[in-house]
Amino acid sequence: MNNENRWGVLYCPRNGYNSKQRREQVEKILKREKVDYDFVQSEDSGSVTRLIKMFLDNGYKTIVVMGGDSALNDAVNCLMGMEELKRRSVSLGLIPNGVMNDFAHFWDLDPHNLEAAVMEIIAHRVRPIDVGVVNYYNRNGEKCHRYFLNCVNIGLVASTFNTRRRSQHFFRSRMLSFIYSFFVMIFHRMDYKVKIKVNSDTIRRKVMTICVGNCSGYGLTPNAVPYNGYLDVSVVYTPKMTQLFEGIYLFVRGKFLNHKSVHPYRSKEVKVELEDKGTLVGIDGRLMRTPVGEFRISVLESQINFLM
After folding, report:
1. Upper half-sphere CA count for residue 154 (Cβ side, 13 Å)
2. At a CB cut-off of 8 Å and minimum separation 6, what does 230 contact?
3. At what angle do helices 19-32 and 114-123 cross, to 10 degrees?
4. pTM of the model
5. For the chain, does the N or the C end have fewer beta carbons within 10 angstroms?
6. Could you tell me which residues are beta bridge partners of residue 134?
7. What is the largest CA-CA distance in the chain?
């Protein structure tokens, strides 16, 4: 069977979010628009990887992820595992159905407007986008890497990802979830000793969090765009309590980089070494196993054809 003109749609259910109705609504739109498609459903992160690989192996040229940042991350890592020539023949679309939907938010894709998201993919406007990559060694001394579209978070923000995911189920609002997470941060550890090399600067001190963004980074790298060949880096020193609340206010106003504790950079490469064992690292909203020793975060230009 020739699947070049068929969509491979991967549906990643989200608990407590009218998942069945959302899937039915998307399928209704696809049938109405006479889109030739195959719909499959994931069970967990492992099945996302397996099902995306199945689409790729069977020659699908349009792959659509109906899910969130983590599911999209799994799909990108599958694509980046392909031979470059084949990868560049595939287009990746997104229907937001996750917890934070940060990458979708950057492209103004509203998770409550499924019709608009599907119609954008049907229009088939393709933009090549950059992909970030983390190169590191694990505890067994093995060389590893992981690709990302949105951001890498180190320290406090990485440690609050699970809290933020849970909060979204209650609030149903992206902004309220962010604000709630900031308040939860007050009760978390706020200082992590790191060594970071960015451009000509070497920083060795305690920080609250670091965000390396290929995209908006959950608001921590608000000026980052995934098509300029650079990473934006926000190094946040540990603020005083009054400054923390000022940071919340500036974040809500979209002026996070104006906070005196935030030190922004723009670079093609960042090197990080965690000097406190308890420091966590998150990639596209999912915690990863903490790297051992120094690890390198860099950007690869124009690697994925994204349907915007």
Report:
1. 30
2. 224, 266, 267, 268, 299
3. 40
4. 0.89
5. N
6. 146, 297
7. 63
Q: Which amino acid does the sequence have at 192?
A: Y
Q: How far apart are CA 233 and CA 267, in angstroms?
A: 8
* Contact criterion met (CB below 8 Å) for 302 and 128: yes
User: Residue 223 contacts by C-beta under 8 Å, 6 or more apart in sequence?
Assistant: 232, 257, 264
Which three-class secondary structure state does DSSP give residue 135? strand
Quickly state the pLDDT bin for 49 (edges 50, 70, 90).
very high
Read off the pLDDT of residues 226-268 as tens digits, 9 standing for 90 and up. 999 999 999 988 766 555 555 554 555 566 677 788 899 999 9
* Residue 160 structure tokens: 């609050």
**Residue 10: beta bridge partners?**
40, 65
Among the listed residues 171, 156, 167, 169, the one whose alpha carbon sits nearest the alpha carbon of residue 247: 156
In the numeric block, which tokens belong to residue 253? 């106003």
Radius of gyration of the chain (CA): 19
CA distance linking residue 103 with residue 117, whole number of Å = 13
- Own/partner contacts of 251-255, CB < 8 Å, gap of 24 or more, are 251/178, 251/182, 251/219, 252/175, 252/178, 252/179, 254/219, 254/222
Query: What is the Cα 50 distance to its own chain's centre?
Result: 20
Q: How far apart are CA 183 and CA 305, in angstroms?
A: 38
